[in-house]
């Protein structure tokens, strides 16, 4: 594989860091495009965006710490820059940390508009680019497989990693599976995002489907089992997925996805039909939903 993308004397650009940075920048550009398109740009949204980045960075590292406590205990007393660059990173923790930071910063600033859907396409775009870096620089790629699309690596590439189970044969290209999924998600969101009547639920729907997909792909990602055959990310995904399912069940029970019927024009023949007060209230709640 290619852990180093460019090296020239003291200048070293690591493949994973490069694609992660490019993914983050691309996601932010698309996010700000959506904010501008919706007329939501302003000083407060800029502060909220900074909080999301900081929260995402903290969450990406904290959520993996409990899996490698001895490794982190050895970092005590090390320079902060070393701890940041050599700590684990998890996209699940990054999204969770960013979400918490957004909620807290909105409350602190008194910002009430829903911004979730502005992230809906930005996150899969960033994921696609970032996972390219993972595929090019990380081993093992996945669990061993005999499928025709399994990927093998050279012995010299495998030797660059202290532990590389399955690197002697073909492996599931789990990062490629994720790239394909997020490309499809990006297309679906961009093409059909206007079909979701409740603001913020496009993002939640994407996160629900992405969580279910990630839970499934974890079985071929070669992450170590923590308990009952499940990996650390799967244990994190279980409560998050349950909360998202609960949200959509509650939304369906409240009937917020059913828009009131359009009134029949008087010249069409027959009595004019107007929505009931309850239906109008439901429609108003849909149009002004929060996330």
Q: Topology, please?
A:
Layout: E1 4-8, E2 11-14, H1 15-37, H2 43-65, H3 69-73, H4 80-85, H5 91-109, H6 116-120, H7 122-137, H8 155-158, H9 174-192, H10 201-217, E3 225-227, E4 230-231, H11 232-254, H12 277-287
Antiparallel strand pairs: 1-2, 3-4
Helix pairs in contact: 1-7, 2-5, 7-9, 9-10, 10-11
Would you give an account of this structure?
The chain has twelve helices and four strands; from the N terminus they run ββααααααααααββαα. The protein has helices at residues 15-37, 43-65, 69-73, 80-85, 91-109, 116-120, 122-137, 155-158, 174-192, 201-217, 232-254, 277-287; strands at residues 4-8, 11-14, 225-227, 230-231. It has a two-stranded antiparallel sheet with strand order 1-2. A two-stranded antiparallel ribbon has the order 3-4. Strand 1 (4-8) and strand 2 (11-14) form a beta hairpin.
Q: Secondary-structure element sequence?
A: EEHHHHHHHHHHEEHH
Number of domains: 2
Helix content: 55-70%
- Flag low-confidence runs: 79-87, 284-291
Mean pLDDT: 84
In terms of DSSP E residues, the strand content is under 5%
What is the overall number of helices?
12
What would you call the shape? globular
Structural class: mainly alpha
Distance between the termini: 41 Å
- The counted number of beta strands is 4
Main sheet: strands, sense, barrel: 2 strands, antiparallel
Rg, nearest Å? 23 Å
> Strand sequence of the main sheet, in spatial order?
1-2
């Amino acid at each position: 594989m290619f852990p180093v993308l460019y090296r020239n004397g003291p200048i070293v650009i690591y493949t994973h860091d490069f694609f992660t940075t490019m993914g983050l920048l691309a996601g932010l550009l698309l996010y700000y495009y959506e904010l501008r398109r919706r007329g939501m740009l302003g000083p407060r949204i800029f502060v909220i965006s900074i909080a999301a980045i900081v929260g995402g960075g903290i969450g990406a590292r904290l959520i993996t710490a409990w899996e490698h406590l001895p490794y982190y205990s050895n970092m005590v007393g090390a320079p902060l820059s070393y701890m940041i660059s050599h700590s684990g990173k998890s996209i699940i923790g990054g999204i969770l940390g960013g979400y918490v930071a957004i909620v807290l910063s909105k409350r602190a600033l008194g910002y009430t508009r829903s911004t979730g859907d502005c992230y809906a396409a930005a996150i899969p775009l960033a994921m696609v680019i970032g996972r390219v870096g993972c595929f090019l620089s990380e081993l093992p790629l996945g669990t061993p497989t005999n499928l025709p699309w399994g990927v093998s690596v050279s012995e010299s590439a495998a030797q660059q990693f202290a532990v590389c189970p399955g690197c002697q044969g073909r492996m599931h290209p789990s990062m490629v599976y994720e790239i394909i999924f997020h490309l499809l998600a990006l297309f679906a969101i961009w093409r059909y995002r206007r079909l979701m009547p409740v603001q913020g639920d496009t993002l939640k729907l994407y996160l629900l489907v992405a969580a279910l997909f990630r839970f499934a792909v974890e079985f071929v990602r070669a992450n170590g089992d923590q308990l009952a055959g499940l990996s650390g990310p799967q244990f994190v995904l279980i409560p998050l997925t349950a909360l998202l399912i609960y949200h959509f069940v509650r939304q369906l029970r409240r009937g917020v996805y059913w828009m009131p019927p359009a009134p029949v024009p008087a010249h069409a023949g027959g009595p004019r039909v107007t929505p009931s007060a309850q239906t109008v209230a439901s429609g108003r709640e849909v149009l002004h939903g929060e996330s």
